[in-house]
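Worked example 2:
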Amino acid sequence: MDRKLWIGGILVLILLLSFALFKMINKPQNQTAHTPLVRTERVAFAADALSFTYSGEVHARYETILAFQIGGKIIQRNVELGSAVRAGDVLFAIDPKDIREGVNSAGATVAAARSQLRLAEVNLERYRKLYESGAVSQAEVDRAQTTYETTEASLNQALAGYSTVGNQLDYSRLVANANGVVAEVSAEVGQVVAAGQKVITLVQDGEMEIEINVPENRLDELQKAQDLTVNFWALKDVTVKGKVREIAPMADKAARTYKVRISLAEAAPQVKLGMTAKVAVAPKNGKVLAYIPLSAIYHSGDTPSVWVVKDHAVTLVPVRVGRFADNKVEIQEGLENGAVVVTAGVHKLQEGEKVRIAGEGQ
């Protein structure tokens, strides 16, 4: 009897151990550990959902490069970088000694030509009287007339030379042609400069502009833009409306972008030359658009698709895309407003798979 009880106890123990082992083998595994973790973004449709922005710099509309019209050694500098000047102010001067000598020489030539002309005039008058009395022939009078006209022409030539040298004396001073600010100084006292060599860049007072660089695929959109808004990095509370004034006819050879000048409707007094600006370009049309990150696009064959999350399960939805900008892509068809799309981890998902959403603490 004891032996039977002992055998029965062993059988019961074996059954219990077998059942426990079975439960361990078939115990549901921790699904959370194997559920993919994804990042998501909610789709939002809105009119003119995206504005393209371009960084630029504040410039004056008129920037003049000033240079001497003659060459020489600079002996005087009256301005510094950033100096405010008025029209007519003398900015630089070159050594005028040789020019003054030229003026003196030209003046002497003029005086000699005048003396020759007076002598020729007296001789002509004398020959005319002698001709009237029959003492000389008409040929002598004609010869005196020719001498007078030649001498008169020589005087005019000397006067022109004197005027030219006098102008050069004026050119020895570099004068501001307008009110403005000195933006760049490219020469120093003691330097010998050639005629036409850049000496100063003068930024004229008045209208200010923003210069930006635009890729070729955005030019048409920029030209049709209805609204340009300009903000300034250093002036957080200043916003100015802008308008496209000029687009360069050729692209920059290195950057392959076009320089565009944006005129400011009303520049605030705080806006200074050289400030960093940001130009926002809103599309002209009123289409309702949505933009999602490029990382959300999953290509299945030739069809772009996105993973849409609903009840923590993903479904692959084909979409039709439009423009690309700033690492975003325009969605034209396929998504509903408010849909939650996966933006990171799209290549590790399967249809109907459960996912964990970053930030939800799952």
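The chain has four domains: 33-49+287-357, 52-60+206-282, 65-95+172-203, 97-171. The first strand starts at residue 37 and ends at 42.
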